[in-house]
Design a protein that fits this description.
Strand content: under 5%
Radius of gyration: 20 Å
Distance between the termini: 30 Å
Helix content: 55-70%
Low-confidence stretches: none
Largest sheet: none
């Protein structure tokens, strides 16, 4: 995997947390990935909530009711 060296300025409390970690780069990389995933999930949920009223009010609109169906996987 390609890597890049970065120079960061962090708040003191975050710096103290990092002092307890053996591999700071790995910890920060995993934390950043997790944050991006959580942000995307929140964004998708917010968009789904906005669209919900349209799906509930119009029987001609179709939506997935279960993401674990075989049709979804294939």
């Amino acid at each position: 995997m390609c890597t890049q060296r970065l120079n960061l300025t962090l708040p003191d409390d975050v710096s103290e947390i990092l002092k307890t970690k053996k591999n700071k780069s790995k910890f920060l990389g995993e934390a950043a990935r997790e944050k991006v995933i959580n942000d995307r999930k929140e964004e998708i949920m917010a968009k789904a909530k906005k669209l919900r009223k349209y799906y509930e009010s119009d029987d001609d609109l179709n939506s997935l009711t279960s993401l674990d169906s075989q049709d979804f996987v294939e």
